[in-house]
Amino acid sequence: MSSLPVKQLAFILILLFSLVSTSVYFIEKQNFETRTRAEEPISSKEAESISKTKNYPVTYQNSKFTPEKITVKFGESVTWINKSTNNLWVASGPHPSHALYPEFDSKKIIEANQSYTFTFTKKGYWGYHNHINDDAEGVVITE
Fold it and tell me: What predicted TM-score, i.e. pTM, was given to this entire model?
């Protein structure tokens, strides 16, 4: 019984690893693009007229958002309230570019006992984070 030389076996393993890694990358990229696809935005004025201006609170405390996941209707708002002693900066993903939904970004620090409100004028699945502590993450789903 003949066996493959070590160099050939190493080459085959590296090739196999590369193929699997590339496949996983493209599958995840497609999943991300599907989750983040959205309709064209409308103006804030139009959003206010569509919504009865429902506003959902999300608190930030102990380096986490509560609730971590929230579903709102198109044109509704979410208010993030900083109940921690640490600073907060709410921004869409991915960190640090915030390119997923660039308008969804407080663009400044929200100090303790302060808040930030954003009205969602795009339908989609919007991951967000604390720009100062990007381990703190959440999701807003706009229907």
Answer: 0.64
